Amino acid sequence: MSASKHHVMIKGVKDGLVFLLNDTCEWQDVLQELKHKLEKTHQQILTGPIIHVSIKLGSREATEEQKEEIRAVIKQKGNLLIQSIESEPPKDAAAELSAAPMTTLRGMIRSGQTLHNEGDLLFLGDVNPGGIITATGNIYIMGSLRGMAHAGTEGDEEAIVAASHMRPTQLRIAGIISRPPDEWGIDEAFMEFAYIKEGKMEIDKLHQLHRIRPDSPIKTAVPIQG
């Protein structure tokens, strides 16, 4: 067995050593190389006083039996003390998407124009009556919203619509459509945002955003002519 395949990498850290085990090769190849490095190539750095060792399995989901095999190999070196044997949590596509950076656009959306964005959108400008702004994530408008806005277009009911001046002809979040504009009762003095609560759309002052959505996170806009 060649030790040059690097199925096992050993790194020194502040509290001891980290063993990084390849998660794409055969398990027996990992065990063989681990034994080889403990007994031959890395014997010198693995001797002496007690050394704390953390085992990183990458994305491999090891069984208890496999973990015990690792323990048995490492215990042969009496000064190595295993602190942990861990796999990386599987990557969550939804979490990655939510962590995507916000897009910042500027301009004006006039009547008959539509602007759509994938993810969260910060729009610096006004949306005029007859204009439409949509996003799969949240929409934040630093300006007047006097047209239509639709956040969470792919069904995200956690999305919000916020605007410096909220006078929309219609708001949508996911599949929920707002009440008529004259029922909002919006205060002119504050920036507001719309959100879904118990299946209904509500409006609140933007300074309440951290309480209602605690996890809520420059190009030039090119509107689509209607």
UniProtKB/TrEMBL annotation:
Keyword line: Cell cycle, Cell division, Septation
InterPro entries: CAP/MinC_C, MinC, MinC_C_sf, MinC_N_1, Septum_form_inhib_MinC_C
Keyword Manganese: no
Cell division listed as a keyword: yes
Septum site-determining protein MinC N-terminal domain boundaries: 8-85
Domain Septum formation inhibitor MinC C-terminal: 106-203
Family statement drawn from the similarity comment of this UniProt entry: Belongs to the MinC family.
NCBIfam families found in the cross-reference section: minC
Biological role stated in the UniProt entry: Cell division inhibitor that blocks the formation of polar Z ring septums. Rapidly oscillates between the poles of the cell to destabilize FtsZ filaments that have formed before they mature into polar Z rings. Prevents FtsZ polymerization.
Protein name, entry field: Probable septum site-determining protein MinC
Native species: Paenibacillus whitsoniae
Phylogenetic lineage: Bacteria, Bacillati, Bacillota, Bacilli, Bacillales
Gene name in the database record: minC
